[in-house]
Amino acid sequence: MRFYEYQSVMNNTKWAEIRNAMNDCSTNTIWRTQDVKTKYISDWDGDWFYHFKGNYKNIEWLEIKVENLEEKGQAINKLRTINIPGETKDNVIKVYGYVQNNKPIDYL
Hints:
- The chain is α+β, with helices and mostly antiparallel strands.
- It has helices at about 10-25, 70-80, and strands at about 5-10, 30-35, 60-65, 85-90, 90-95, 100.
- The radius of gyration is 13 Å and the shape is globular.
């Protein structure tokens, strides 16, 4: 897979807004990311304040896992105020940083 086949749909400001929203969220969430260039998937992590910060330019996607549907609803409501590209499935919310060119994307 070649990097130029992807387009960015997020920026550092939006990633920081997610970080702040999830840090302030009362639900128990964990997260992991995939690097767009190397395809490395990080381990699950629960620390939004110290570990999810810095340079976000290589995040292809962010997955946020919640424990139940009630917590999922609370997390989605927080994320909808930011207007970010993503989707939900079961107990995971996936936020896209990059999408393949010409691929349609939904927003939370």
